[in-house]
Amino acid sequence: MSIELFRQDRHVCVMFARLGDEGGDAVQSNQFLLVNGDTGAILDPGGNTAHSELYLGMSAFFKPHKLAAILASHADPDIIASLDRWMTATDAPVYISRVWERFAPHFCKPGKTDGRIVGIPDAGMHIKVGGCTITAPVSPSTMRNWLACTAPPSPPRSVNIRHWWRPLLKSSMGMAPDFRRDAPPAL
């Protein structure tokens, strides 16, 4: 199931939930598609049970070869087990914290990730997606579950997603993140 969280001009944020729900056997996670015109990024692409539906959902917005980035909050199977399929179907690089970057190749056939894994430094970084820039902070104080994103339309929907994505979502929507307000309290 997909839920549009935000739409403004050529910017769209869509949450995908319950993809590949097979009677509760698989751990459920949410995947997110950030669209900027005819390109975009996938946030936490999910496990193999989620791949086909997310791929088709993305294809409704842009051609798969136009995927600019795969963003992973961490390297748990429910977050990146489908990575091998995405690395085959697209040329998109994978952005993941330097803490987790050496784990990502374990989900792919040998050589598939060569030159395509980008470790995000603790200071964070800016990621170009089409005509916009996504800010991905990954400091230790933000590497934990914490986001509550409220988005239009009415009534507002609250969505929980993992780790450092509030500033990322705000950045993708054309709003400058306020790290003092949006970051969780220090551990």
> What is the distance, rounded to the nearest whole angstrom, between the alpha carbons of the first and last residues?
34 Å
Main beta sheet, described? Answer: 7 strands, mixed
Task: Give the total of domains.
Answer: 1
Residues in helices, as a percent range: 10-25%
* Strand fraction: 25-35%
Radius of gyration: 15 Å
**Coarse morphology:** globular
Return the string of H and E elements. Answer: EEEEHEHHEEEEEEHH
CATH fold descriptor: Metallo-beta-lactamase, Chain A
Strand order of the largest sheet: 1-2-3-4-5-6-7
Give the helix/strand class.
alpha/beta
The gist of it:
By secondary structure, the chain is of the alpha/beta class.
Short descriptors:
187 residues, alpha/beta, two-stranded antiparallel sheet, 11 strands, 31% strand, globular, disordered C terminus
Write up this protein.
This protein is of the alpha/beta class. The protein has one domain: 4-Layer Sandwich (Metallo-beta-lactamase, Chain A). The chain is built from five helices and eleven strands; from the N terminus they run ββββαβααββββββαα. It has helices at residues 48-59, 77-80, 83-89, 165-172, 179-182; strands spanning 2-8, 11-16, 31-36, 39-43, 67-72, 94-97, 117-120, 125-129, 132-136, 147-151, 157-161. A hairpin with a 2-residue loop joins strand 1 and strand 2 (11-16). Residues 140-187 have low confidence and may be disordered.
Task: List strands and helices in order, with pairings.
Elements: E1 2-8, E2 11-16, E3 31-36, E4 39-43, H1 48-59, E5 67-72, H2 77-80, H3 83-89, E6 94-97, E7 117-120, E8 125-129, E9 132-136, E10 147-151, E11 157-161, H4 165-172, H5 179-182
Parallel strand pairs: 4-5, 5-6, 6-7
Antiparallel strand pairs: 1-2, 2-3, 3-4, 8-9, 10-11
